[in-house]
């Protein structure tokens, strides 16, 4: 029996479920992501400050939305990225930066949460390449940070990789 034990263990190991693939970004692979169906893009107008993001290594930035145009300088996935140009609403709670590199800042922006007064905005990407939190009108209150963290986690983001500035 002792000689059969290693063979039995190898046979059992071969039957084990394969390990799921690692996500190349900040979200668990295969986790659904949801955009905000009642999002009102007209309420984006104005300046927003980046208060959190996934990854570290650069300074936080901000976003300005004015009349269908966007100007950004953000820390995304540990890299500073900037864009100035048009944006479009591509679906409920979904934005696209026209002409931006799709493998960087131009990845689809999905609004996964916004508070009812449009002071705090959580944006994620379906591929998990980045996610960030914007705020306006002063410091980010703890209750809105808690809500944003819960939404990021619900959408599969690894909260251990969230940097709050």
From TrEMBL:
The entry's keywords: Signal
PROSITE patterns: PROKAR_LIPOPROTEIN
Keyword Signal: yes
Record-linked Gene3D superfamilies: 2.40.128.20
Origin: domain of life: Bacteria
Signal sequence bounds: 1-16
Matching InterPro entries: Calycin (IPR012674), Lipocln_cytosolic_FA-bd_dom (IPR000566)
Domain Lipocalin/cytosolic fatty-acid binding: 105-163
SUPFAM superfamilies xref list: Lipocalins (SSF50814)
Protein name: Lipocalin
Natural source organism: Cereibacter changlensis JA139
């Amino acid at each position: 029996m002792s000689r059969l034990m290693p063979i039995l263990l190898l046979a059992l190991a071969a039957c084990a479920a394969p390990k799921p693939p690692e996500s190349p970004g900040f979200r668990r692979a295969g986790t659904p992501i949801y955009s905000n169906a009642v999002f009102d893009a007209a309420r984006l107008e104005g300046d927003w400050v980046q208060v959190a993001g996934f990854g570290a290594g650069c300074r936080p930035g901000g976003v300005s939305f004015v009349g269908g145009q966007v100007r950004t300088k953000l820390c995304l996935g540990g890299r500073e990225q900037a864009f100035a140009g048009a944006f479009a609403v591509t679906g409920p709670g979904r934005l696209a930066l026209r002409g931006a590199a799709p493998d960087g800042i131009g990845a689809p922006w999905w609004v996964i949460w916004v508070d009812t007064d449009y002071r705090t905005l959580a944006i994620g990407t379906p591929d998990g390449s980045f996610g960030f939190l914007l705020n306006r009108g002063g410091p980010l209150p703890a209750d809105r940070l808690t809500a944003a963290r819960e939404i990021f986690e619900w959408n599969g983001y690894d909260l251990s990789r969230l940097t709050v500035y």
